Amino acid sequence: MVKLRLKRCGRKQRAVYRIVAIDVRSRREGKDLRKVGFYDPIKNQTYLNVPAILYFLEKGAQPTGTVQDILKKAEVFKELHPNQPKFN
């Protein structure tokens, strides 16, 4: 099973995160399938590769709670096809 989750980057006390599609059994810093976004909580900046995110969501990838909140804020779920399950 594939999940969309955050992968920590940056230096000490200055974390930035990549949003990646990764196998559930991999650890946080493990090998990812594809980088699909970027999130900087300090500057509150977000970059999302929406077509790649939609591709993984349509294939059944599950976003983690934090990634789900980021995607909701960016209104990515509105672009899903009507027959796809919506995430609350």
Low-confidence stretches: none
CATH superfamily: Ribosomal protein S16
The rough form would be described as: globular
Helix content: 10-25%
Q: What percent of residues are in strands?
A: 35-45%
Radius of gyration, rounded?
13 Å
What is the top-level CATH class?
Alpha Beta
Count of β-strands: 5
Structural class: alpha+beta
**Average pLDDT score:** 87
Distance between the termini: 20 Å
CATH-assigned fold name: S16 Ribosomal Protein, Chain: A
Reported CATH architecture: 2-Layer Sandwich
What's the domain count? 1
Subcellular location: Plastid, Chloroplast
Main location: plastid
GO molecular function: structural constituent of ribosome
GO biological process, one term: mitochondrial translation
Structural overview:
Belongs to the bacterial ribosomal protein bS16 family. This is Small ribosomal subunit protein bS16c. InterPro entries: Ribosomal_bS16 (IPR000307), Ribosomal_bS16_CS (IPR020592), Ribosomal_bS16_dom_sf (IPR023803). This protein has 88 residues and is an alpha+beta fold. It has a single domain, classed as S16 Ribosomal Protein, Chain: A (2-Layer Sandwich). It has helices spanning 50-58, 65-73, and strands at 2-11, 14-23, 34-40, 45-48, 62-63. Strand 1 (2-11) and strand 2 form a beta hairpin. It is globular. It starts with a strand and ends in a 15-residue tail after the last helix.
Characteristic key phrases:
ribonucleoprotein; single chain; plastid; Small ribosomal subunit protein bS16c; 2 helices; alpha+beta; 38% strand; five-stranded mixed sheet; structural constituent of ribosome; 20% helix; globular; S16 Ribosomal Protein, Chain: A; 88 residues
